[in-house]
Each structure stands twice: as C-alpha cells, then as structure tokens.
C-alpha cells in the first residue's frame, strides 16, 4: 500500500488505471463540507458544475478530493468514489459495456478540467473514469488528510478482477494468505489498488463497493472526532500490515477508512 503513496506533481499525468481522484456525492453540500473541514482540515473552492453544485477540497492549497451535490433525479449512492485514469474515456466506457459493466453517467466534459464518466462493474460496484486535461487529479499524497489507497470489496475476486484487468490493463498479483481471496492491481509494476473477495461478509445494504482510505496522523483520535461530528464508527482502529486502520460513515452514511501509517 505504501508504495503507491508517491507524491504526484500538479502536472503529472497518471498511467491508465491509476486511481487519480476521489469524489463524494452527497445531499447536503454545506453540512458535508463542514464535517470534512473539521475532520481533515480541508478548505473548499468551486469546481466544474456539469452534474450540479461541486467543490474541490484543498489541503495547504493542493487539490485532494471533490464533493458534489447529488441531483434528486440521479440514483447514485452516497459514497466516496475513486476515479481511475484513462487516456480516452469514451474508449474506456465502451470497454466497460463490452465487459459486462454499466455506464451510468457520461462520458461528458467537465469544463476545461477533463472528461469523465461514472460506471459500475458487473457486480455493481461504482467507480469513476477520468481523462484529465487541465485537472489531472489529486496533487498531494502521503500526508494526513489525503487519499492513501482504494480497494474494492466484492463477493469473489476471480471474475471481477478479470473485468478490471481487461478494461484498464492491470497486472494482477494474488495475495498469498490463508483463507484470503485478495488480488493487488498493479500499473507498471507498482501496486495501485486491491480487490478483496469477502463473500457473505459484504454489508447487505451496500453490496460490492469501492472503499477509499484517507491518511491520518492519529486513527483513534480521528474516529472519536468523526463520531463527535455526527458520523458513526463502523470498525474501531485496529492493526493491519500497513498501519492502524479504522472505518467510519459520515453523517449522510458515506463510508471511508482512515489509516495511520507507522513512521
């Protein structure tokens, strides 16, 4: 996981398949901004409005994430969604459809920032596709308040990993662990995301979904703070091979994990 946390300059074009941005669609934009400002220290400025009101979250002047207001007529989940880089969003959207996925939004231009689509894999997990122009993605990583990792929680890895491998050209590396059904996705030999098959442990109300991890300085303190701000702790902080990890839902129910890396 830590190998994927290299700092990306504002003009670094991401290799196809690399998670380059995370975006949240919520009902109450102002209240959502307040929650994440208090939790991660984010500031906000307006972004492209193609799907309605949208802001970009900044940390020390660097763009790290986006939050949009969910249009009443769109049945998108209230969830953090990773955007995967592509050199041609229209071609990638066609590949998604050919491989059994669904394209729910787009492809469409997001002003001068780039071109995007929102899709789901054959199991129903939602992800974004981003062809960057003026905006290539997150410009800061490796510090508290920035996206650190993305992983897909699904029923089983075999078929869905094949989908992502075919659409984005990932190299797969099975995780060798007793009783574990996990695959790490690599781009150019570097791990960029993971797929975990958890079978019936998937939440019934969510189904297969992508989970974003944000780096924090103190996982226990962040979880306590999230609860005080109106969120819910779903998994208390616990040790993992990559550091202390916990999972929370924000006040509207968007789920994300936090990771405190050992330094």
From TrEMBL:
PANTHER family: CONSERVED PROTEIN, GLYOXALASE-RELATED. It comes from the Bacteria. CDD domains: SgaA_N_like (cd07247). It holds the Pfam family Glyoxalase_6. Residues 18-132, 146-261 form the VOC domain. This is Bleomycin resistance protein. SUPFAM superfamilies: Glyoxalase/Bleomycin resistance protein/Dihydroxybiphenyl dioxygenase (SSF54593).
